[in-house]
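User: My instructor asked us to take a sequence, write out its structure as tokens, and then describe one feature of it. I'm not sure where to start. Here is the sequence I was given:
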Amino acid sequence: MEEIKDDMTAEKWIRIWQKEYRSFVKESTFATYSVAIENHILPYFAEKKIKDIDCDMNQEFILSLAQKKKGMETGIYQLRL
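Assistant: Let's start with the prediction itself. The structure tokens for your sequence are:
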């Protein structure tokens, strides 16, 4: 695997990871991972440097996903009324 450098962005690292690990998982698993990466992880982390990603940033990301899910559930509930 390519060496992780201090100035490497999360997107660059993720693309390397995808290339390296694709052959180790089933195609359906890789497809599921790719959807999560494209729809959730990259919009939040793409331009951030690997060295700058810390526990607080990860927690903010998780909370942002929870907020999106809550908003989607509320919208679905309103459509049913």
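For the description part of your assignment, you could build on this observation: The mean pLDDT is 86. Try explaining in your own words what that tells you about the chain.
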